[in-house]
User: Fold these one by one.
Assistant:
Number 1:
Amino acid sequence: MKTCFVIMPIGDQVVGGVKVTAAELKRRYDDLIKEALVQADPRLEIVRADEVAIPGTITNDILFRLMHSDIVIADVTYPNPNVFYELSIRHACRIGTIIIKDQSAGASPFDISHQRHISYDNTPTGLKELAQQFRQYFAQFERNPTRPDNQLLDLAKLTKYEFLDYSPVAQTDPESDFISAALQFPELLALISKKAAGEEMPQADLMTAMLANPDAALKITKALSRSGQLDLGFGTTNQKQVPHRNPPRTKRKK
């Protein structure tokens, strides 16, 4: 099941001297945004910030969802600093972000004004249109799972920027790798074992077998090399060893 995290104001807002209550925002979420998401993909697990934290706080749960949710919806209708902060965190983490805004709202802040977004109308017709646009975005994410969707990731891709990687380094066991590779490709193991035993074997046969399953070949050769049982000797594999002979001596004229 894919996860969707919605970031939007969840407490009372005052915009241009007009107050928008938390209850009004909750109705906008339940009746429009969430409903449009459900219509776009009923399988989505949808969560809003106030369902995991109290208003005005950014918890580890929120940060976790910003980092790991498949999709994040950011409603920037109201100039709320928490929303913009959470949106920037998401943009730095991964793709799969959709910015939305009520079409009756004022202009977005300059830094995100050029970012693609969906303008919606808080009406029954607007609900249908929003759901349709969500479906289009979801389909685009499926077609282009690694395509950057914001300026930061575009620049990171262009400049080959390497983000910090905190993922655990897999500890591999050479013996386990050898066994799993041998089970995947026993024919290759048989050829390499013959070579390791000193039997003559055409280089072309070995290369053909290795190219047929490079992953298995890498694991097997690494394991045998570490154990000292393998010396491929590609340069002479297909050549017979010719015994060294001293050149014939010529008789010196007296």
Number 2:
Amino acid sequence: MQDIIIDEEFRRILPALDETAYNDLETSILVHGCLLPLVLWNGILIDGYHRFGILTKHDLPFSTISMEFGSRDEVKDWIIELQITRRNLTPMQLSYYRGYRYNLDKRIGGNRTGINQYSEVGGQNVTQAKSQSTASKLAEQYNVSSRTIKRDALLANAINKIGEASPEAKMDILSGKTRISRKQLKELTGDSEADITEIVTRIIDGTYENKRPGTGVPYDGNTNDKTDSEAMQPWEEKFAEMTDEFRQLLRTYAKSDDTASIQSALRQYIDMLEVLYRDIGEDG
């Protein structure tokens, strides 16, 4: 068992596996061994924290590979990009990591070393996007608008600000244990340290509850705010919720081997929406 450095900042970038997923991973490793190598940067573990914990626990052998990066920001950018391809993220998590990558790429700017423009780890291909503006590059990669990426960046800043005060509170938000709206998170970027501390304390105590004004209904944390200042209409909120659920469902079943049937069902759904769209226009 070689010496491997555990970096808490890298380890906490993404949410921990839930108990079921962790147990499934442990069972797989015990039965089949560790099929993917652990990835190191200057001796620091940057991919495989859950696997490493299981391997160490059971004193099992493993292999490693080393990669080169010019800075910690480049490492974090790579970790996020790789993990997004592996996980079914919630809409809140996906927004956070898109925004996190935007902020990282803005900081890296033209200082990127150029190393790992194309890297392959355990069969997962990770490519650096071609030279474009940061927002445009990520918008194209994640099939959203540049404006969405910039709003995600505000959300990521707020969550990271909470994480600086309490990594546990940050994990509660990303896991969905604590429900907080996107708009409220973005507004936190201008709050004082005392205000952040108060919110963090309530999150840790389990007493934080953010409600939609005038409704008494808690935010689910996944609806998309229309803008930072405009309230969404009830039908817009419902559409946003349905869209988030549909995207999550599609990401889940898109991994099926029967992609032809999934594409056929999706095409029928698109055709149905086109008919509804035309009918609404005619009625208007």
Number 3:
Amino acid sequence: MSDALAECRLCGLVQRPGALQPGEEAVCPRCGAEVRRRKPLSVARTRALSLAGLLFYGPANYFPLVTVDYHGLMSNVTLWSSVRSLFGAGQYAVGALVFTTSILTPAVKLASLFLISLLAGTGRWPAARMRLYQLVDFVNPWNFLEVFMVTLVIGVVKFGKVADIRPGVGAWSFAAMVFFTILATEVFDPRLIWDEAPA
């Protein structure tokens, strides 16, 4: 471990910070930022943030995503009712897309984060866990588009004309769930997967 290289998180300088252990830090000689071999408390923070995301997953699916006022007629739209409305309107491809991106993908993403973090320290299936992490990391930037897509699609398909659409509790819960899952992915250090893998 004493000869291992470490990269500065700020300036990118690759260096040998001496006999630095995974939980310790050194100072970058170029920019003065901290240099660590691994992110501190990576697994514990990933588990905690994934749990926080899971706590918001239920409200995101149960409570209204948007409240629509169409000429005085109020309507609450949840993720599930939006999928049903799209299928009822014959928009099967769009309904399947909304279901996949807004209901199925977050559930798979949360399950993947729990699986990756719960298997930390076991040394099991490192290649599969790395591919799973890469998939979750790839999906992350697209998550916040889902709320806006559902709002736009429902407004166009269900009402066809101008309507007053306001975000509901479900939208805020969904945004919080996405925020916590993105943080959980960012704080996890995938290098830990290979630290514990058999040589």
Number 4:
Amino acid sequence: MAEKLKYDGTAVWFIDSERQKTFHFSEAVDKFKTVLFHRKDKPVEWKSFEDLKEYRIGLTHGYSYGDRFHAAEKKYGLKIDISPTDTLGFKKLLKGRIDLLACDLGVGYWILNNEFPASQRSLVTNDPNVLVENTVHFIAPKAQKDSLDKVNT
């Protein structure tokens, strides 16, 4: 809606090369750490993106996982499964349809604690490695004449 100039701006967004073509970005308003959630009975060990090619990784539609991750996805042929919501991604993880779910650490535990019973959430943990650490920003469309003022306020 902001891109169509129906809104003056929107929050919170990661900086990525595609969005930079269309939007001005504010200074960082917060920092998100995307980690890989997995079932406790199926631990994961990885040090580089290449190590992830043996796993089925759940992502959420419309989210950016950073240019480095998306480049690694192509370079190493990572097996990606897209879900429309984080909650559905957790359901797939619990059923074993995916091995890993990329999700913000705080958001992931909020979803587990608020949308799943204790018997299910006790089956899931997160890998301590950070997949992507990104700042998030308020964005305003470049096509709007005063948008630069809005992100600098």
